[in-house]
Structures are given as structure tokens and as C-alpha cells.
Amino acid sequence: MFFLFTLAQTPPSRLEMLKQISDSRYKVQYPITLLLFFFAGVALLLLWVWLRQRAKAHAAQDTPMSVFRALARQLRVSLFDRLLLMRVARRQELPSPLTLLLSARTIRHHARAFAAPMHRYRAAALMLRVARLRRRLFPAA
Description:
This protein has about 140 residues and is mostly helical. It has 6 helices and no strands. The N and C termini lie far apart (about 85 Å).
């Protein structure tokens, strides 16, 4: 407040000088800010192009995990069930979760071994979830 009062009492030459200082500061700062935004945009664009090329190169390889993901997507297995299958396969030291999609018995066998060290209520909930998944994936079994 005091600054505004003294600024209002200053002669016009001081006001002009303050205005020139502030204008020159903004004139110098504006191109620098513009250049920073430009380079940040270019960096983001390059990052996006690199990630797309990497994803395309990685997707071109038919690994067991990529086949599992594609098959699970086609069978409309939910994300949580996919994660469950991956956890079971990892804990049971299977080569890939694709092994679990071979038959209903395979899923049941490995799910039981996975649930064995769990608390009884948690194991029961897991087996119920696996049973629902089995019924959906293998309706005839």
C-alpha cells in the first residue's frame, strides 16, 4: 500500500523509467519462454515417436505373453482375472500364463496349489473367482 502511494507521488520521469525497465525485462523474457515451450514440445513429440516405434517393434514379436494378452482380450477376460492368471503362473513357475488357458483342469490344479498357503477365507474367495473364470472360459467342462 505504501509502495502504491509513493509510486503515485513520483514524477512522470520515474514512472516512465520503471515502465521501460519492466518492458525491457518482458521483452527479453518472452522469447526465452517461447523457446522453452518450443523445445519442450519438440521433446514430447520425439518421446511419443520413440515410444510408438518401440511398441510396434515389441508387438511384432510373438512372445508367449503377447499371445496370452491377445487371447485373453479375445476371450474377454477381465483385467483383474488376467492379473490373477499371471500371478498364479508366476507363483507356480509356469513358462507363461498361456499354459493356464489350455484346460479347465489346468487352471483348477494350479489355482489350488496357489491358494494352499493362503488363509482359508482368502483361498475360498480365490477358488470361487477361479471357478467363475473356468465356467466362462470352458462352458462344456
